[in-house]
Structures are given as C-alpha cells and as structure tokens.
Amino acid sequence: MPFDALLGRFLSHSHGSSGGGDASTDTTTSVDSEVAVFSGAGGKTLKRATGSGIARLVSGVLSAVSNVSLTSEVTGTLPVANGGTNAGTASDARISLGLGSVDNTSDTNKSVSTAQNAADLLRLLKAGDTMTGPLVLSADPTVALGAATKQYVDGIQADPFTSDYLTTATETFNRRLAQSSVGGVAGQMVLSYFTARESRTISKLGVAVVGAAVGGTARRLGLFTAADDGTVTLVARSAANTTMFGTANAIAEEVLDATGGFVSTYNVVKGTRYAIGYITVGTTTAPTFRVNGGAGAMAGLSPVLGTSRSSQTDLASATAAQLSAFGSPTWAYAAT
CATH assignment of 169-335? Predict the structure, then answer.
C-alpha cells in the first residue's frame, strides 16, 4: 500500500468512533500534508516528522536514507528535460540524445564516406607509387633534383656541349662545332636553322666573320620562323648597311630595326623552329663566315640545317620550293 494511503488510513482510525486520543501532540503548529510518525518507548504517540531528505518505507517503517538505488528502487525512464536519457538501454539512449551514429568502433575498423574513399584512391604515396595515366609537368626543371619533362630531355640528349652554349643568346648550333669557314656569294641569301632551347626576348643578331667583306650596296641579318612545310617567314631584321661583316676574325652583331613594319625586339619561343639568315648585295669580295663544314648533304635532311636562295637583292620570306640545301650551316645567334 502506498505510504500516503497507509498514513491516511491510520489517521482515520485514530480519530474514529473507538476514540484513542489525539493523533498528534502538536496540532497547533501542524500543517496540511505534513508527515507524522510514531514515537515513544511506552505507549506510542503520533508526532510530527522533522528534518528533510530522502526517506524509505520498509514494512510500514519510515527511515532516512542517503541515496536511492536507481536499479531496484526506481522504475520507468527519466526524461531528457529532467537530466535523464529517456531510455532503458545504451542503444536507445544514444538515439534519444541524438547520438545514434556514435559508437566505440576502433579507428582501424571505421568506414569512410564514398566521397572520401574516391579521394583516397586518387592520392600518390610519398614513399613511391605507380601512375596509371600520364603525369604532365608545368615546366622544365629549374633545380638540380627537379623532374625532367620529355621536351627537356629531347633537347639535350643528342647535344654533347650543353654547358657551353651562350648564356644570353640562342645559337644555331654550339660554337664548338663551328670549326670551318665558308665564303658568301653576292646576292645569295643563306639560312641556318635551329630549334630554340629556351624562350627569350631578342634585340640583336650576330655571326662570326672570318674574312671581311669589301664593297657592295647592302648587307643584312634576319630572323625567320620555319614551318613544317619548309616555308620560312622573315619576322625580324637588322638595318641594311655597307659596313656590316667588314672586320675579319670578329663577331658582327647588329640590333634589330623596326623600319619597314618589322620590330626592334622579338620573342623567341622555346621549342619553335627558326632560322638566322644573311645576305650581301654587290660585294666585290664576299665575307667568309664560321660554319659547321661537316654537315654536307646531311644539312638537307629533315629537319633541315641549312638552305640558300640565289639572285636576291634582300632578305625575304620563301617557300620550300624556292630554297636549296646548303651544306655548311653558319654559326649565328639571336641575343637579348
């Protein structure tokens, strides 16, 4: 029987028809809903309960306790709003608290999202890995241990003089190979071809003169682009004069001239095919230039190393059909 019902039954009995006296010895200060307990060694007297705290009723006897067993003395669930979990099991508690996805799975056994798994499959291991597709680098290496591109390797693999190229100019070929000399012919445009090893903005063209030119009405240097079909297009040139190539055993270097719709500077692009050409017009003694005399007939093989065109009055663009192979490519350069 609940404690409040039991107490009410007793109080009703002690005030009943059989008499028995007051239910409390302190009725003047008693208030509604107070708890009364029996007291006394002799005849028991119903007295007011004093103090506060938690009480336990066992076999009709009320006693104070310091704690309540949640296992044996409390039934039902405690709402979340009152500090509970509103659940009877750990699994239900996680759901009630909004933690249904929380568990104690070890890091090793935890799964990852589909998106994260897809990203993991695209990573490369720092310790080494295997690519299933091509790796494209943004540029050629600039540091000693930088990865090399194919175009970088292709540009040096057949060149035994990599470290001896001019530092501020792009050459038709390495100067170490210019061990012969060939004399020019008045009115002959001679072109020497090269693939640019680096990109640079040029403003000058130069050649190595062995024997000086005498007389004539014009001498000039020019830069051409060279197409795959053999066509050459004049894109930059020096001014024409009668003093160029006039000093023997010297470098003849001329600045680019913007006259005639040309430019005073030109951007040479790495990997692009070009040619540097020269011409003398009306000379009584044509100049002699430093060349690679060992090319011979090989200079005409594709990609060509040297071509020429006779009976000209100046440098000009030309088609492949208008050019002839020239077996002694001239050493020349385009400089910043």
Answer: 2.60.120
